[in-house]
Amino acid sequence: MTRTRTPAAARTTSAAPNETAHEMRLPALQVRQGPSRTLYSFAVDGKLLPRFSTVSRIHRDANTGVHGYQRPEVLSHISAIRKYIESDDPMIPNAIVIAFDKRVVFEPTGPSGGYATAGTLVIPIDPKWPDEDKPGWVVDGQQRSAAIREARVEAFPICVTAFITDSDADQRSQFILVNSTKPLPKGLIHELLPSTVGALPVALQLRRFPATLLERLNYDDDSPLEQLIQTPTTPQGVIKDNSILRMLENSLSDGALYQYRHPGAERGDAESMLSLLKDFWVAVRNTFPGAWGQPPRRSRLMHGVGITSMGYLMDAIAERYAHLRAPSIEDFEYDLYEIADLCHWTEGTWQLDVEHQRKWNDLQNTPRDIQLLTNYLLTEYRAQTLGRPVRRQRRA
Predict the structure, then answer these.
(1) Do 248 and 317 share a domain, yes or no?
(2) pLDDT tens, 227-269?
(3) Pairing mode, if any, of strands 105-108 and 116-124?
(4) What distances in angstroms separate CA 306 from CA 302, 318, 362, one per listed residue?
(5) What is the three-class DSSP state of 46?
(6) Helix H segments across the chain?
(7) Are 321 and 390 a contacting pair, CB within 8 Å?
(8) Is 261 helix (H, G, I), strand (E, B) or coil?
(9) Range 341-350 contact pairs with CB under 8 angstroms and sequence separation of 24 or more
């Protein structure tokens, strides 16, 4: 990549580095934080980060002493970020944090403006240096920097926040502080997803449409689940949002909602999906009124194990009617009636098989218990409806 030398007058306004064979000069802000801390904020092409920084990988020496502080690269995480960077309109607002040693110096170019002073950060570089001799160590952002390095893009500017220290202990303490802050709660992410636009990391992209369905189920006036799903803005809800999302994702993957998906896209006919979902859960509410709307500790129907297993039952009932029509509320009630007396959501004991009994509140939201209850409900439902015709629709 050919670079021209930046005129001195432009160094504080251009993010492009002024680079020679021995140093890189970057426009930066010096920020005084507290009585003794100084930070430096600048922008740089992320492709250039390996020229002056590396990762202090955690390891132990022969005496089992700990050195470094970074975790190994997570290849799946890096791959997801790389794909996002290669998308049409990516944005990474989070700054990478780098610890520099004292070979890096700051040259002010103007008067201090309160807490900040404009100037130039002078970073020594040498292509012959091994990683351990480079002046910068990545404290936070190793997955992002690796993704930028691997991304098939010519350049990707990134914000960097840096501090200068020769102390490995200081670097490690800053790493712990940066990474011990509480992340965004998943519930908040799920609640924000429906209103996001543009490309997202793959894992969030896959959850955006189910999160949209969840939002509609929780806030549509005609939804039986209205205000029952617990989210940051509906803290009084009794059903965990993750339980609803799991139920939706299972059905979207290979259940009753799959037929309404758009080919090759993580979206679909939301109105048809919601019609089916609302009809089913109205039927569930009508079939089990005593268990409906109770906290999970009082009703396993509102518990993750109940929501997920009943979602699989919804798929099975819809499949039985698939050759005729999408099942209505009355259709769902007609079929749920066959297994209603076998369910013990609020009291009693589940007779899960000949030798396996479980008290109603012993069932937990674990893969094993979800599979156990799902298998029981599906087996009993298919046994009760074997050879039995579907409900006839009344003529208008």
Answers:
(1) yes
(2) 999 988 888 999 999 999 999 999 999 999 999 998 766 789 9
(3) antiparallel
(4) 6, 18, 12
(5) helix
(6) 49-52, 75-85, 142-150, 168-180, 186-192, 202-219, 241-254, 270-287, 304-321, 329-340, 367-385
(7) yes
(8) strand
(9) 342/380, 343/288, 343/301, 343/377, 344/300, 345/288, 345/290, 345/291, 345/299, 345/300, 345/301, 345/306, 346/290, 346/291, 346/294, 346/298, 346/299, 346/300, 346/301, 350/376
**Do residues 92 and 141 share a domain?**
yes
Residue 95 lies in a domain: yes
Q: What's the total number of domains in the chain?
A: 2
Strands 18-19, 23-33: pairing kind: antiparallel
Give CA separation, 298 vs 130, 188, 294, 304, 368, in Å. 62, 26, 6, 13, 21
- Quote the CA–CA distance of 328 and 276 in Å, as a whole number: 8
* Helix locations, 159-295, DSSP H: 168-180, 186-192, 202-219, 241-254, 270-287
Residues 198 and 140 in one domain: no
Question: What does the pLDDT look like over 54-68, one tens digit per residue?
Answer: 876 443 344 433 334
Q: Which two tokens stand for residue 34?
A: 């507290």
CA gyration radius, the chain? 29
Neighbours of 232 (CB within 10 A): 13
Q: In this structure, are 145 and 201 located in the same domain?
A: no
* CA 326 to chain CA mean position, Å: 33
309 φ, ψ (degrees, to nearest 5):
-70, -35
Amino acid at 91: M
- Identity (one letter) of the amino acid at 262? H
Examine residue 392 and state whether it is found in any structural domain, yes or no.
Answer: no
Residues 156 and 278 in one domain: no
209 & 230 share domain: yes
Query: In the chain, how long is the greatest CA-to-CA distance?
Result: 87
In a domain, 271, yes or no: yes
Containing structural domain, residue 138:
8-180
Q: Are residues 307 and 372 in the same domain?
A: yes
Whole-number Cα distances in Å, 101 to 53, 135, 175, 269, 360: 11, 5, 15, 56, 61
- Tell me if the pTM is above 0.70: no
